[in-house]
Amino acid sequence: MKRLFTFIFVVISVLNLMAQEYNPQVESMIEEVNLDSLKMFVRNLTGEDSVRVNGEMVRIEHRVDSWGNDLAAEYVQQVLEEYGLEPTVQNYSTNGTNVFAVQEGTLYPDQYYMICAHYDAVDYYCADDNASGSAAVLEAARILTPIDFEYSIIYALWDQEEIGLVGSNYYAQQAASNGDDILSVINMDMIAWDNDEDMVAEIHTNSATNTQELADYIMAIDDIYDLATNPVIQNPGTTASDHSRFWNQGYAAVLMIEEYYGGDFNPYYHTENDRISIFNLPYFHEMAKLSIGSIVSLASPVGFGTGIDQLLANGGVSLNNYPNPFSGQTTISIELAKDDDLQLVLMSSQGAVINKLVNGPKTAGKHEFTLNADELPNGIYFLIGTTQQGSQTRKLIIQ
Predict the structure, then answer these.
(1) 161 and 134 in contact (C-beta within 8 Å)?
(2) Which residues have CB under 8 Å from 133's CB, separation 6+?
(3) 228-261 pLDDT, tens digit each
(4) C-alpha dihedral (79, 34, 241, 171), degrees to nearest 10
(5) Among candidate residues 218, 43, 56, the one with its CA nearest the CA of residue 132
(6) 373: number of CA atoms within 13 Å, CB side?
(7) Which of 4, 36, 126, 185 has a beta carbon 3.0–4.6 Å from 114's, enabling a disulfide?
(8) Tens digit of pLDDT for each residue in 117-137?
């Protein structure tokens, strides 16, 4: 009965999508997908840059399972925790470790939409395969965790894809055995190579329950929000990535990938020459937008209204910053619903006011400035913006 209910629900969701009109709230979250943030995650995962893990500056030299890729798993876990999630580290075998976290929905917490990728690799660097997809999952968590959604979202990073889709297979079998109501799965694997610059995004499907409808859903998102990608549905699609393990259990799932069938596949695949330097960065950015925008629409943000209505509901002020976590500097973005007096303070986790950043009248619209935190100790801080309409708080992490 539960699987029958899922089938009926997803069909209704697809019908609703076909009638869906442009919504500025969805576009707002798509626009939050930041290329610099995506690049940071890739550079950290591929060892191009050092990163702080468990309090120490380290370099993730590789993500090869047989050589030991625990450091990569610890980094993924840490990032998810920094965004307020409680990750599950699923040690399903001696060397196999999945890392995933659930953002609970407000209305339908037991129904799930999943965005996922594999983090393991076969050589040094392996940026496109698949730090690119992993980075997009982490970017989704960065953007979406402050937002309430009607449905739960699963952010999942799989291990041992490269030796037979082992991690995703274990998870999908467990989910099916438990009767988990996973409504849709978007798997990203190699989303950064576009040598011919045609922006083709392949969406791989098959006959599993509602998988074709999910692909059509993503096609509609691309059209409604006028994204730069050119999506092409491949049916039957490849079984050579983690989405296929969800097909095997009857779940709707798609693979988002560069031109695997279309003749423009990364020639550096499975070599140490697969580095971020060979990325088509605009293509990478747009592929992440399409995947994350689809999850946003599927999971249904609470309070779906016009941008100005949402701002007023949040006390007339919206706060954001990038990067977060950060060291040195971060860019703070403030949006006001109308002309207002704004007080913006930086506060320590113990409640002490560190700095009054703004104290006076500001015009409606967006304002940006740089916060220099070189002299502040590492830790958690709070940015609090207050207007005559109310206030909003944002957590900052200095590392």
Answers:
(1) no
(2) 117, 118, 187, 188, 189, 190, 191, 256
(3) 999 999 999 999 999 999 999 999 999 999 999 9
(4) 30
(5) 43
(6) 28
(7) 185
(8) 999 999 999 999 999 999 999
Q: How many helices (H) and strands (E) does the chain have?
A: 10, 17
> Residue 109: which pLDDT band, with cuts at 50, 70 and 90?
very high
Q: Given the structure tokens 């060291």, which residue do they identify?
A: 327
Is residue 2 predicted with pLDDT exceeding 50?
A: no
What is the residue whose two structure tokens read 């999630």?
A: 85
| 184: nearest Cα among 218, 222, 160, 142 | 218
Residues of the chain with CATH 2.60.40.1930: 307-398
d(CA 319, CA 336): 9
Six-digit token pair at 162? 């490269």
Give the tokens for residue 67.
């050589």
Give the model's pLDDT for residue 350.
62
- Name residue 170's amino acid: Y
| pLDDT value of position 101 | 98
Query: Which has the closest alpha carbon to 147: 26, 315, 286?
Result: 26
For 181-235, write each residue's pLDDT tens digit.
999 999 999 999 999 999 999 999 998 888 999 999 999 999 999 999 999 999 9
Pairing of strands 253-257, 230-234: unpaired
Q: Token digits for 97?
A: 């470790």
Nearest to 185 by CA among 139, 250, 262: 250
Pair type for strands 108-118 and 151-158: parallel
CATH fold of 2-299 reads Aminopeptidase (3.40.630)
The stretch 29-47 carries a mean pLDDT of: 95
Higher-confidence position of 28 and 114: 114
The sign of the CA dihedral 174, 8, 11, 27 is negative
User: What pTM did the predictor assign?
Assistant: 0.77
Residues of the chain with CATH 3.40.630.10: 2-299
Q: How far is CA 3 from the centre of its chain?
A: 27
Edge-to-edge strand list for the sheet holding 317-322 = 317-322, 329-336, 365-372
Q: CA angle 127-133-136, nearest 5°?
A: 115
Q: What angle do CA 251, 72, 111 make, to 5 degrees?
A: 25
Tell me yes or no: is domain 307-398 CATH 2.60.40.1930: yes
